[in-house]
Amino acid sequence: MMMMMMMMMMMMMMMMMMMVMMIMMIMIMMMMMMMMMMMMMMMMMMMEVRIMIMMMMMMVAVMVVMMMLMMMMMMMMMMMMMMMMMMMMMI
User: Fold this and answer.
1) Nearest to 9 by CA among 71, 76, 87
2) Are 22 and 73 in contact (CB under 8 A)?
3) What pLDDT score does 47 carry?
4) How many C-beta neighbours within 10 Å does residue 33 have?
5) What is the dihedral of CA 25, 27, 29, 33, to 10 degrees?
6) Which residues contact 16 (CB under 8 A, 6 or more apart)?
């Protein structure tokens, strides 16, 4: 019983951590977007096409990386859940 309680607590903690991480990721993504938009506006004022294209590329790259990180987080969470379930079953 105690073991099960411990497992539950662990699971809750994991979930909380994952949630916080996800929220932080989203925040960072928003920040990046804002910064990129600002840059774009400035570049448009300057009318530099090449720099604009480079910024676009960078933005896309950042987005892809963030997505990958999120996916990894999700996978980790799933794995943790599975492990916990298995342990519960064993107990």
Assistant:
1) 87
2) yes
3) 67
4) 13
5) 180
6) none
pLDDT at site 91: 67
Q: Tell the residue number behind the tokens 């903690």, with chain if given.
A: 13
| The token pair that represents 17 in the structure block | 């951590």
| Sole residue written with tokens 């599975």 | 82
Which residue shows structure tokens 């996978």? 75
pLDDT digits (tens, 9 = 90+) for 22-47: 788 778 778 877 877 777 777 677 76
Whether 25 and 73 have beta carbons less than 8 Å apart is answered as: yes
Q: Which two structure tokens, joined as six digits, stand for 49?
A: 């096409």
Instruction: Check if the beta carbon of residue 14 is closer than 8 Å to that of residue 80.
Output: yes
With a threshold of 0.85, does the pTM exceed it?
no
Whole-number Cα distances in Å, 25 to 28, 41, 74: 5, 24, 12
